[in-house]
């Protein structure tokens, strides 16, 4: 008995330490410090007047809602999730600059930067060290300088805001300033078509996937064909599970053209004109976002403070996966129950851009990207079950995906593939996830990082480390 009690005083000591250190950083002096410092460093002086409206201390009644509004994964919305000592919500670029100066200078404190997207792992608003959040949700302006051909889009702007401004201010602008071929920006009047037939195993879903792998990465550049694979209950075999496969497509052309093209290239799909909808580009955006056929203004709704629990992972496929292997994978998915796949074809424009032209490395040679996706609604202990499903499927997929490195997609942020503690081995730790996200571009990114931020002030669990100091 006595023995089993000994750990308790130890536990207390840890808890006390934790509380003390957390308190010292949540102290009101931090608020005062920032208030004063921002006033001093914000230029022009006209931007100083608004400083008292952009600082949210933990004691502020609005703090919880400001923090939650852009939490996009409730796994990171619990009472034990580390909270920022302060949230700063800039109204002007000058506020961003002075926040960085103040966080770096007087009390060095970590900054987490949040633009309000779909950060899967909460790295934009959580840290194990004392930190503040620089929340950019007010910075959503789009300014167009047609004369010089420069468009500035602030970090938090959405696609609809961009479209709204351009349509209202100057309807012809997209064509001139944003060449649509390069940016995939079709002019508004052009019609776009899509379809989504679904197949189960009993309906030759395997044939569909076999042919999709061959066609999707190399077909007409105007055609994007995403493939979804999910376990479902069988409609024909009572009480049995099967796998459903569906293809969701965006085509920049007419329905007739698409039907003709796919009859030739992808006959297994059996596309019918009935499966196609001819839409304007903005209506197709609404459709992709599952908003159906509502007004484009619906996209301005930022769905604040609402999200499902989720875990995502990613892989790249470089050789088509054979029929037998697909069958084996589907069986595993049925066993696991809740996890599904999204296959995104590469090829097309992606493989025309040279792999060393920019940091994004996944180019020629990648047939498609896999997103592993599991989503649930209940809080608490079920989380482990779902995240384990993701880990197991990822492990089953090892023989069928890229290796050395096993590549991953940065936007589908996944802390399982390695994190950095920024100790002595930060370079080696960084290599583990850095090579997966950036392949051989990692080395170059480390050089850039070492030059522009040698102190590693801007960092998160998977940021690029600096070169080890010599000597
Ligand atoms: C339902 C859903 C669907 C998605 N679909 C897709 C998809 O189809 N394609 C795709 O590519 N991705 C997709 N994503 C992923 C998502 O788009 C990315 O995670 C995206 O990069 C988030 O960008 P953000 O700028 O809003 O960043 P945040 O979520 O705010 O933060 C992401 C990271 O960027 C950093 N950061 C944010 N702003 C700045 C800044 N101004 N300067 C420096 N660092 C900054 C943050 O600190 C953090 O590390 C999806 C996510 C979800 C949840
Ligand atoms: C909360 O913070 C906001 C933004 O800085 C400020 O305008 C407001 O006065 C604060 N409220 C209280 C009660 O301190
Ligand atoms: C976060 O949790 C609170 C309750 O604790 C809830 O009201 C809120 O809707 C949640 N927000 C998100 C984004 O999960
Ligand atoms: C769109 O339509 C589908 C099917 O009719 C429905 O399940 C879904 O809730 C709708 N989405 C929205 C945002 O209205
Ligand atoms: C998840 O829970 C279900 C139902 O309780 C169980 O059958 C399954 O084995 C669990 N999966 C994992 C990966 O823990």
UniProtKB/TrEMBL annotation:
Its cofactor is FAD. The keyword Glycoprotein applies. One of its GO terms (molecular function) is oxidoreductase activity. Residues 408-465 form the Berberine/berberine-like domain. Residues 171-196 have a biased composition (Basic residues). GO terms for biological process: cannabinoid biosynthetic process. It comes from the Eukaryota. Belongs to the oxygen-dependent FAD-linked oxidoreductase family. This is Berberine bridge enzyme-like 21. It comes from Senna tora.
């Amino acid at each position: 008995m006595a023995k089993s009690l000994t750990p308790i005083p130890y536990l207390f000591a840890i808890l006390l330490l934790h509380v003390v250190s957390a308190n010292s950083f949540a102290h009101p002096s931090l608020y005062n410090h920032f208030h004063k410092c921002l006033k001093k460093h914000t230029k022009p002086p006209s931007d100083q007047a608004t400083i008292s409206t952009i600082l949210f201390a933990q004691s502020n009644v609005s703090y919880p809602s400001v923090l939650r509004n852009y939490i996009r994964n409730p796994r990171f919305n619990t009472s034990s999730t580390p909270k920022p000592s302060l949230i700063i919500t800039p109204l002007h670029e000058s506020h961003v600059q002075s926040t960085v100066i103040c966080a770096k200078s007087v009390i060095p404190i970590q900054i987490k930067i949040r633009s309000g997207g779909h950060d899967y792992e909460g790295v934009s608003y959580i840290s194990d060290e004392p930190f503040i959040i620089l929340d950019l949700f007010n910075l959503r302006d789009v300014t167009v300088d047609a004369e010089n051909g420069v468009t500035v889009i602030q970090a938090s702007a959405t696609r609809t805001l961009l479209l709204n401004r351009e349509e209202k201010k100057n309807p012809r602008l997209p064509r001139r300033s944003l060449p649509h071929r390069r940016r995939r920006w079709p002019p508004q009047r052009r019609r776009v078509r899509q379809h989504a037939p679904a197949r189960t195993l009993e309906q030759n879903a395997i044939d569909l996937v076999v042919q999709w792998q061959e066609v999707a990465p190399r077909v007409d550049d105007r055609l994007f064909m995403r493939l979804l694979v999910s376990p479902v209950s069988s409609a024909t075999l009572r009480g049995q599970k099967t796998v459903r496969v569906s293809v969701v497509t965006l085509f920049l052309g007419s329905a007739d053209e698409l039907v003709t093209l796919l009859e030739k290239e992808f006959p297994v799909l059996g596309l019918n004109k009935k499966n196609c909808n001819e839409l304007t580009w903005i209506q197709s955006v609404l459709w992709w976002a599952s908003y159906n056929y509502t007004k484009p203004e619906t996209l301005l709704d930022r769905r604040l403070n609402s999200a499902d629990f989720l875990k995502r992972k990613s892989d790249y496929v470089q050789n088509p996966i054979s029929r037998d292997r697909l069958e084996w994978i589907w069986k595993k998915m049925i066993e696991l129950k809740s996890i599904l796949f999204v296959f995104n074809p590469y090829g097309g424009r992606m493989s025309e851009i040279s792999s060393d032209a920019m940091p994004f490395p996944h180019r020629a040679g990648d047939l498609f990207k896999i997103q592993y996706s599991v989503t649930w609604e209940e809080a608490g202990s079920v989380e482990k079950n779902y995240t384990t499903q993701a880990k197991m499927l990822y492990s089953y997929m090892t023989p069928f995906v890229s290796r050395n490195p096993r590549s991953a997609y940065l936007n589908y942020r996944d802390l399982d593939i390695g994190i950095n503690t920024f100790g002595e081995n930060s370079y080696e730790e960084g290599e583990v996830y850095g090579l997966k996200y950036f392949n051989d571009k990692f080395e170059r990114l480390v050089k850039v990082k070492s030059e522009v931020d040698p102190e590693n002030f801007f960092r998160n669990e998977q940021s690029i480390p600096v070169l080890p100091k010599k000597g």
